[in-house]
């Protein structure tokens, strides 16, 4: 592109709708008097902060994409003002989501920590299952921690997010909390699959001799956590292949692909969400369908009370599969659409990350612990035993007081 000497004194300059294929880092260095710059409809794949550093008087800039605004942190006004995830002022674009990120985080952490405490205090006949449930609660709790961090940084950058946007997305904090969310998601998916297969073998093949012992269960759980950790940290190993994998948006979660994403990162993300997670979802749906069929077949010749039990099992299975489908189907669709380069509003991505992705983390304590009849029975027995102990202590105390202070003879 040719620039005449006259251009150097311009205060406002519009070069939108030009067939530009490349903008050099020093392209605007001579335009120190420029106050308004419009480069709408121009893709800048090599954009950097250095491009606009010399424009000290620049107050208004107009880009094609909101994410470019982070590379001009000193301007007073940048358009577009939002990508649906973040705005020029705030990390989280929607005031409702800015409030509910804290609500969802609290529900997840409170529910899972409560189950961990209850499961640890109440003795269970199936210790291996309890170990898996506690492990699942720990994984789900990490999702709550991730949401707390997003809420905290949203407050930190409130009113001036664009000044810190690029530094935030490239920061170690963003990378670590994105890694934390990925670890939580993948470990939770793999643990649910493991627990489903274990239940599937017990119900569909009740007479087989294989039962995982304590050591085997512990080995499975450790393997799942190690595998989840490896999946989460692989993008840190090779920046050339993955680029800024977790820093593609303000919420630091690699759910949505765009044309600026590196091919290696896109392939890896697709392999995780449409490979591993979709495969796990299919296994869970198939296993619970087979379990329901097996229970129904067994109960055909049984009496009414068995039929009632079958109905309750069917309801439970339905809610487990339904919540999994409610959580993962939108994510699968979102990933497929982004790969097909269908334009997806950032607001949808934000709702998915804040509300839909954490659904399982919030509901797993209810589905796998609080609503189970075996846990409720053990809790009742535990409470009765506590009440009896309390009653015995009070009676003993009263008898002791009588002996210590005998009533005077008449």
Automatic annotation (TrEMBL):
Q: Is Membrane there in the keyword field? A: yes
| Location(s), subcellular | Cell membrane
Which molecular function GO terms apply here? G protein-coupled peptide receptor activity
Q: Which domain of life is it from?
A: Eukaryota
Name assigned to this protein: G-protein coupled receptors family 1 profile domain-containing protein
Q: Which Pfam families match?
A: 7tm_1 (PF00001)
Residue ranges of every copy of the G-protein coupled receptors family 1 profile domain listed in the record = 111-368
What keywords tag this UniProt record?
Answer: Cell membrane, G-protein coupled receptor, Glycoprotein, Leucine-rich repeat, Membrane, Receptor, Repeat, Transducer, Transmembrane, Transmembrane helix
| Segments passing through the bilayer | 95-118, 130-155, 175-197, 218-237, 272-295, 316-336, 348-370
Q: Which GO terms describe its biological process?
A: adenylate cyclase-activating G protein-coupled receptor signaling pathway; hormone-mediated signaling pathway
InterPro entries associated with the record: GPCR_Rhodpsn (IPR000276), GPCR_Rhodpsn_7TM (IPR017452), LRR_dom_sf (IPR032675), Relaxin_rcpt (IPR008112)
GO CC annotations on file? plasma membrane
Q: Does the keyword Transmembrane apply?
A: yes
Q: Per UniProt, what is the membrane topology?
A: Multi-pass membrane protein
């Amino acid at each position: 592109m040719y620039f005449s000497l006259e251009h150097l004194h311009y205060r406002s300059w519009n070069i939108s709708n030009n067939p530009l294929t490349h903008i050099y880092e020093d392209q605007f260095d001579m335009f120190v008097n420029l106050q308004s710059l419009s480069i709408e409809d121009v893709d800048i794949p090599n954009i950097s902060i250095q491009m606009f550093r010399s424009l000290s008087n620049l107050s208004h800039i107009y880009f094609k994409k909101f994410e470019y605004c982070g590379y001009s942190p000193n301007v007073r006004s940048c358009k577009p003002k939002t990508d649906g995830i973040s705005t020029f002022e705030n990390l989280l674009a929607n005031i409702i989501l800015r409030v509910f990120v804290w609500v969802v985080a609290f529900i997840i952490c409170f529910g899972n920590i409560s189950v961990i405490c209850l499961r640890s205090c109440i003795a269970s006949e199936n210790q291996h299952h309890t170990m898996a449930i506690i492990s699942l609660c720990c994984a789900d709790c990490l999702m709550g921690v991730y949401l707390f961090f997003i809420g905290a940084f949203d407050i930190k950058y409130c009113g001036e997010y664009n000044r810190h946007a690029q530094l935030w997305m490239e920061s170690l904090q963003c990378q670590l909390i994105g890694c934390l969310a990925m670890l939580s998601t993948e470990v939770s998916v793999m643990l649910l699959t493991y627990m489903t297969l274990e239940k599937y073998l017990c119900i569909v093949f009740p007479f087989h001799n294989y039962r995982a012992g304590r050591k085997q269960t512990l080995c499975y759980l450790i393997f799942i956590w190690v595998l989840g950790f490896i999946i989460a940290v692989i993008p840190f190993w090779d920046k050339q292949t993955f680029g800024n994998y977790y820093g593609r948006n303000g919420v630091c979660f690699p759910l949505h692909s765009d044309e600026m994403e590196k091919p290696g990162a896109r392939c890896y993300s697709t392999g995780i969400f449409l490979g591993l997670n979709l495969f796990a979802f299919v296994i869970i749906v198939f296993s619970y369908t087979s379990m329901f069929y097996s229970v129904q077949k067994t109960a055909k010749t049984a009496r009414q009370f068995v039929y009632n039990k079958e109905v309750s099992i069917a309801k439970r299975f339905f809610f487990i599969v339904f919540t999994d489908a409610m959580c993962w189907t939108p994510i699968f669709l979102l990933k497929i659409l982004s790969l097909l380069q269908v334009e997806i509003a950032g607001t949808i991505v934000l709702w998915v990350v804040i509300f839909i992705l954490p659904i399982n983390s919030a509901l797993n304590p209810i589905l796998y612990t609080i609503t189970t009849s075996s846990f409720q029975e053990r809790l009742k027995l535990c409470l009765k035993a506590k009440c009896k102990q309390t009653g015995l202590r009070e009676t003993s105390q009263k008898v002791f007081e009588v002996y210590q202070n005998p009533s005077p003879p008449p």
